[in-house]
Design brief:
It contains twelve helices and twelve strands. With 293 residues, the chain is α/β, with parallel strands linked by helices.
Length: 293
């Protein structure tokens, strides 16, 4: 028996497959049967599917998954998208009274001429656990009156990007706003990241709040020109800032950013992909739900 079964059939689904789950079976439906559209993506992710259904049509996928679910007596089926494999597998799970977890939910364009759009909406309506990328997707689900539990977790594809992004092992910190102009705030921030290398291009107004540098891994430098700042942002593993411009530039480059502003008008856009921890959140929720079933 496998508590959780992940079902994939196309490249986007393979890229999102959750790894390192206990009692977890990974299934390839075979929808993308060409090696250039299937095998290379599994190998690239370092995943070997436990089962290959070898199906292509909707009915073949449905029948193959339904037979597998009857055999494995699983608790939760994880669906990763809006493809033929996703919809057929979700229906098979529903017909076998198995809980459905659906990733990337509520991403609607409301063009019902598009097969994937129809698939996504129908899967959302029959799913028990819905993992939304952001609050906008959650609002779409509420408008659709879906009945399952909704969790805002971030974007798995963003997680994958961050995992493959090359960066140096330092945190870039830029602080200058009036609400943060005090020694207590700075010392608390530096202490929080004391085990990491930190680079702090110091704004002139902040110099009065810096006493003796007590942190060996903190490098305080003079302000830098814009091109050099862009390089510092691009190569950082994390940016911690109260600068609207720096925050947006980090977002543009795909660098995780922590906003140190009481109110940031573009916070929703910055947070729309999450903080690179979507997979961890989803894993924890799935494991907790398994205990409850």
């Amino acid at each position: 028996m496998s508590d959780i079964i992940s079902i994939c059939g196309t490249r986007p689904e393979v890229l999102r497959v959750i790894k390192d789950l206990p009692s977890h079976l990974i299934v390839n439906t075979g929808q993308h049967y060409d090696d250039n559209m299937d095998k290379i993506f599994w190998e690239e992710q370092g995943i070997k599917p436990d089962v290959n259904i070898g199906a292509k049509s909707f009915s073949e996928i449905y029948d193959g998954i339904s037979s597998l679910l009857k055999e494995k007596k699983t608790k939760i089926v994880v669906i990763y998208g809006d493809t033929r494999s996703s919809f057929a597998s979700a229906l098979a799970a529903k017909d076998n009274d198995i809980k459905i977890a659906h990733l990337e939910v509520g991403v609607y364009g409301y063009d019902m001429e598009v097969p994937e759009e129809r698939n996504r909406i129908m899967i959302d309506h029959i799913s028990d656990y819905l993992f939304a990328i952001n609050n906008r997707c959650k609002e779409n689900l509420i408008k659709e009156n879906v009945q399952g539990e909704i969790f805002v977790v971030g974007d798995m594809l963003y997680d994958r990007y961050l995992q493959k992004r090359r960066h140096q092992d330092y945190i870039l910190i830029t602080i200058h706003r009036k609400e943060n102009q005090n020694a207590k705030f700075l010392m608390k921030l530096f202490k929080e990241y004391a085990n990491d290398d930190m680079i702090f291009p110091i704004h002139p107004v902040m110099k009065q709040f810096i006493g003796k540098n007590l942190y060996k891994k903190l490098e305080i430098i003079e302000p830098v020109e814009h091109k050099e700042m862009l390089d510092l942002i691009k190569n950082a593993k994390l940016v911690v800032s109260d600068s609207g411009g720096v925050i947006r530039e980090a977002f543009f480059m795909g660098v995780p950013v922590r906003t140190m502003m009481k109110v940031y008008p573009m916070q929703e856009e910055i947070e729309c992909f999450g903080n690179g921890d979507a997979e961890t959140k989803i894993k924890n929720i799935l494991l907790e739900k398994c205990k409850q079933i």
